[in-house]
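Input sequence (107 aa), recorded before submission:
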Amino acid sequence: MKSITIVSTTVEHRLDAERLATILIERKLIACAQISGPITSMYRWEGKINRAEEFVLNVKTTPSACKTVCEVLRQNHPYELPEIVGTETSLVEKHYLNWVHTEVQHG
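Predicted structure, token format:
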């Protein structure tokens, strides 16, 4: 059974999310991206509790392209330690599933 992987990251600026999405779409590593926000993130970094306004970038790809997507995000991400989290799901409408697999040209 086919599935897709949704990879998520956060960035400080909407333009960074758009830049990352564009890189991935141009390389045919993702079918699409959604940018949400701003959101409020709270986290501990270097022993200090931080609060930041961020934007969420969610991208849809295939399981075979997921590793490369994560590598490209890491290489182009503005953060020293970016959140890059993926979830694989087979609960996908079949026409959308086929579209994602047609758009992604990796593996």
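Checked by second reader. The mean pLDDT is 96.
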